[in-house]
Structure formats: structure tokens, C-alpha cells
Write a structure and sequence with these properties.
Strand order of the largest sheet: 2-1-3-4-5-6
Number of helices: 14
Largest sheet: 6 strands, parallel
Oligomer: single chain
CATH superfamily of the largest domain: tm_1862 like domain
Strand content: 15-25%
CATH class of the largest domain: Alpha Beta
CATH topology of the largest domain: pyruvate-formate lyase- activating enzyme
Bound molecules: iron/sulfur cluster
Helix content: 25-40%
Number of strands: 19
Shape: globular
Number of domains: 3
């Protein structure tokens, strides 16, 4: 039996792509192992969103450079593969397969080439209208499932590699998405996360002609599905119909991730984000005036070329104005092929670090304040795990908050088993709040 190992770097799209790659390999008779040392075939599914992420894969490959010609096959897939292409063979001669995500539909053919001894196999074309639909997806989580609805991106944000590494936008048909959601529900999944670099620009290529809000609501009506989330949105394509769909459909989680990147209209223009601060805030107003209480999160980059202290101050003010429930924040990292490269990288790393710390401290206080107002309320969680070091169960609310909680002991004093608890929905009373999570107790005997 041929054994394979796969390591995944980066975003949820990469995680889900790896689930499909694993499914395709297992369908071809490969067995997954958990170390590269034990594998005949080693896959690295890579991320190039920041330089640090890119360097990780080359560091991994360097550890095996003595393996060249000894039968172990190395494959580099994903965004670094697409970005660097055949240069990877020169930099790491023990690599035999280099393929970007736009070529995954050809993975079975590429494996045939590898199995027949070919040692310079590539899949680097971005000329495709295909999406990586495969019946062979091996999902690790039995309760929550990813569904990719659109691949690639037609935007050109100045700092972003995605259009160069994942190609043009290709939407799946609404029928194929709804069929997959139905199959997952019949298989016992209750939570679905719709994925895309920019889900809002989803356009159903079939005669049904669904837009994103219509598809979202249709997935929310699939029998057996209790929660639907989606990521990532782009403010320019984010329509009010999405908020209205969430207000109408309880299974659509009242939680939206809308990356702003900066609070300064000048910086947004330099980033080629195609919206202004005011246009962004209008979308926030739609969410804040919704019937349901919608949790909002975002992405922010500090230290983009040309960002002044005054620009950065506007980003801090935006935090106070929006009061996000959580943020993902990063220092600007110059990337190959991007428009921002020509702008240079003049803000010293130390100053980027100072801004990042100031931003995170401001946000931490906001999160603590927002979480504290939930103390005393009862929230429903999907049970995701058990922390044996704290003897607490780990749950996630519809608003994507982590809630660590205790369960009343049974008559014999024992706790319920993990197998019976994972995937259940429970009402939890919140007793304590921290900036990044909540703590609580379940009054119900389970
Ligand atoms: S919308 Fe912008 S940031 Fe997002 S993937 Fe596309 S180019 Fe990158």
C-alpha cells in the first residue's frame, strides 16, 4: 500500500482543498500516514499570503534534500506552487510535482504520471473555468463541513497574491452546491461553512441564476442543516440582501466577517480595495440595524506603504466606531507579482510592530467589553471538544464565539463521554467573560 503524508498551510480554502486531495488519493488506494518520514509520497499544500508562510515550505523541503533519488516523492501544491512554478524544481530538486489549486481537477492524471516514474510533473495553468468538484472528499470534522462555492478572484487588491495563485473567479452551479449540502445533511452534518476568496461575487452559472444571498438562503433551508456560515466577503460586493437573508432565516448564523483592511480612505485607495471608509460603514450600518444581533469580524493590515500616523489613527477610530467582536490583524508583507511591490516597503518593521500592538490592545479592550455584556445570558453551542487539562467542554455559538463550559456530573459523578457529546447542541449559561472566549455552565443533565 502506498502511503502519503500531507501538511496544509494557510486558509480554510487550503484546508478544504486538502480534504479533497486526501479523498482523491485514498480513492486511488493510497493510505494516509502522519509523518513525512513514514510516507512514500509527501504533499505540502502551501500558502503565500505572507513571506513567512512561504518560507515555511522551503524550510520543510530543505530537511529532506538528502532524499533526492531515494524513491520518496515530494509534491508542492497550492499558492506557492502556482507563484513559484518550475523554479521550485531548481530550488528543491527532490520535488517531483508542482501544482496550483486551479489544476486540482487534473490530480488523478498527475498521479498517473508520478506512478509511471515521471519526476517533473506540473499543473500550473490558470486558464480554466473548472472548479475542484470531486466526490472524494475526506472530511476530518464529522459535524461541521466546508463547501467551496466559488474559486479564484477577479479583484486586484494591491497587496494580494490570490488572483495570481488561484486564477479568475469560477462559481459552482447552485445545483451542485445544494446537492452537496443535502448529502452532508443526510450524513449527519449540521453546520456548513460556504467558502470562497470572495463569496459575495458568486454568480450561479446555471439557468437558476442564483446570486450569493439566494444561494445562502437555499443552503439554509436544506433539511437537517442547523447552521450556515460563509467566508470571505468583499465590501464592494457585499449587498444588503445578505443581511436581509440572515434576518429571515434562523439557520443562517448571525455572524459576518467583512475585511476592511484599513480605516483610511487614502490607504484603501492605495490598496485598490474599491470602496471608501464611508461606503464600508454603510454596510456596517445595515448589520447593526438588522433585526437579529449580528456579530462582526474583520481583517486589518497595518504598515501598508504610505500609511501615515493619521491614517493609522483612522483605523483605531474605526475599531471604536464599529466595535468588532473579533479581528485578524497583520503587518504588511510585500508579495511577488502584486501592484504594491512597486510602492516599496518604507515603514520600518519596528513601527509596523508598534502599530499592530496598539491595534490589538485597543481591540482587546473592546472584545472584553462586548463579551462581558453576555454574562448571565444563555447561548446555544455546538459541542466541539473537551479540554482535559481544565476539564471543560468546548463549544461554539452561532456568533462564532468560543464558550468553555462545565456539565453537571451524572449520578455516579462521571462526565458524559466525548463520542456522545461532540456535535450536540446545548444551552449554556454564561458565567464569565474574557477578551477571546466565554465560560459557562450547562444546567441541563445530559
Ligand atoms: S478580494 Fe482582494 S484580498 Fe481578497 S482574494 Fe481577492 S484580491 Fe485578494
Amino acid at each position: 500500500m502506498k502511503r502519503f503524508y500531507i501538511e496544509t498551510f494557510g486558509c480554510q480554502m487550503n484546508v478544504h482543498d486538502s480534504e479533497k486531495v486526501i479523498g482523491t488519493l485514498e480513492q486511488r488506494g493510497y493510505e494516509q500516514v502522519h509523518t513525512a518520514e513514514d510516507a512514500d509520497l509527501v504533499f505540502y499544500n502551501t500558502c503565500s499570503i505572507r513571506d513567512k508562510a512561504e518560507q515555511k515550505v522551503f524550510h520543510r523541503l530543505d530537511q529532506f534534500k538528502r532524499e533526492a533519488g531515494k524513491g520518496k516523492v515530494f509534491a508542492v501544491i497550492g499558492c506557492v506552487a502556482q507563484q513559484e512554478g518550475e523554479k521550485i524544481f531548481d530550488r528543491a530538486p527532490h520535488v517531483s510535482l508542482v501544482a496550483g489549486s486551479a489544476s486540482y481537477t487534473k490530480l488523478p492524471e498527475m498521479l498517473v504520471q508520478i506512478e509511471s516514474g515521471d519526476r517533473r510533473v506540473t499543473g500550473l495553468s490558470l486558464e480554466t473555468d473548472e472548479t475542484f468538484d470531486t466526490p472524494y472528499t475526506r472530511r476530518d470534522n464529522p459535524h461541521r463541513a466546508y463547501i467551496t462555492i466559488i474559486e479564484g478572484c477577479d479583484k486586484s487588491c494591491a497587496y494580494c497574491v490570490v488572483p495570481f495563485t488561484r486564477g479568475p473567479e469560477r462559481s459552482r452551479t447552485s445545483e451542485s452546491v445544494l446537492n452537496e449540502a443535502g448529502e452532508l445533511a443526510r450524513a449527519g452534518y449540521t453546520e456548513i461553512q460556504l467558502l470562497g476568496q470572495n463569496v459575495n461575487s458568486y454568480r450561479d452559472p446555471s439557468p437558476a441564476g442564483f446570486n450569493f444571498a439566494q444561494l445562502l438562503e437555499a443552503v439554509g433551508r436544506v433539511e437537517g442543516i442547523r447552521r450556515v456560515r460563509f467566508t470571505t466577503s468583499h465590501p464592494r460586493d457585499f449587498g444588503r440582501d445578505i443581511v436581509e437573508a440572515i434576518d429571515r432565516t434562523e439557520t443562517l448564523c448571525n455572524q459576518i466577517h467583512l475585511p476592511v483592511q484599513s480605516g483610511s480612505t487614502n490607504v484603501l485607495a492605495a490598496m485598490q480595495r474599491q470602496y471608501t471608509r464611508d461606503e464600508y460603514m454603510r454596510r456596517i450600518e445595515w448589520m447593526k440595524s438588522a433585526r437579529r444581533d449580528i456579530a462582526i469580524s474583520t481583517d486589518i493590515i497595518v504598515g501598508f506603504p504610505g500609511e501615515t500616523e493619521a491614517d493609522f489613527e483612522q483605523t483605531l477610530q474605526l475599531l471604536d466606531e464599529v466595535e468588532y467582536d473579533s479581528i485578524f490583524s497583520f503587518k504588511y508583507s510585500p508579495r511577488p507579482n502584486t501592484a504594491a511591490l512597486a510602492l516599496g516597503d518604507h515603514i520600518p518593521d519596528e513601527e509596523k510592530g508598534r502599530r499592530l500592538t496598539a491595534l490589538q490592545e485597543r481591540q482587546r479592550a473592546i472584545q472584553l467589553r462586548r463579551n462581558t455584556r453576555l454574562v448571565g445570558t444563555e447561548l446555544e453551542v455546538l459541542v466541539e471538544g473537551f479540554n482535559s487539562s481544565t476539564s471543560q467542554w468546548i463549544g461554539r455559538t452561532a456568533q462564532n464565539r468560543v464558550l468553555n463550559f462545565t456539565l453537571p456530573a451524572r449520578n455516579g459523578g462521571e462526565q458524559p463521554g466525548r463520542r456522545e457529546m461532540l456535535g450536540r447542541y446545548l444551552p449554556i449559561r454564561v458565567t464569565r467573560a474574557g477578551p477571546n472566549s466565554l465560560a459557562g455552565e450547562c444546567a441541563m443533565l445530559v
